[in-house]
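anyone seen this seq b4? input:
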Amino acid sequence: MNRSSIALLVAVGIGCSSPSSTSPASVSEAPAGTGRAPAPGATTPPAGTSAVESPTTAAAPQAAADSAEGPVVSLDDPRIQKIRARYQDIQARNDLKRSELRFECAGGEGRGELRLYQADGAVQKAEIAAADAGHGESTYQFYYDQGQLVFALHDDGSWAFDGTRGTPDKPATTSSVTQRRYYLQEGEPVLCIKKQAKGPTEELGPLLEQAPNRPDDCSRAKQIQQLAVTALAGAKAKTKEELKKLLCT
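predicted toks r here
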């Protein structure tokens, strides 16, 4: 994560436990859960707050972006329907095995965690959660079909203390997030959309869910694909070093 986007990966709704600093890649076999891992390593808002919505509900693929001319790609487009079906199949599985890999950026400038969900001898889904040394956090979720990325979700957010609300014992925070979705077919983006929300941290999930989708220019699609390919390599030391190169500079 470059420092502007190392606002990375979920201190939020992904709820990961704080990763150890430079421990070797760790792999744990356990049934995959449905929730997200919280932002590793960042200074996070008070307990109970969330910077982004759950990936299993409102974060599900949405097939049309709003624009003055109407939907860019309709719900009836067979490419989008196929991607949505693949996403739903993966989310519905209860036999996924999870493995984890944690990494820390040099100088304590950030840290992150990769979570892989595997079945049938292949990675079906991957999540990356990371946070910078300040109040930035972000998450990536990747969904694969036969080893190829077909859908990606990226939440890039930050939070700050809100002096107009709360008390010294229970400080209030305000969060903002930009969420981007990427639909891909044979390695090429079919549709890219985004939505944005800002408000009290405890209300950000519903605010994001209600925000309109807007067309995006897909300019970040190559970076997303590079991360997705790196994650697909598995929870091992080489993957950790590649993630640090991509997310810590």
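The chain has four helices and nine strands. The helical segments are 78-92, 204-210, 221-232, 237-247. kinda curious what u guys think
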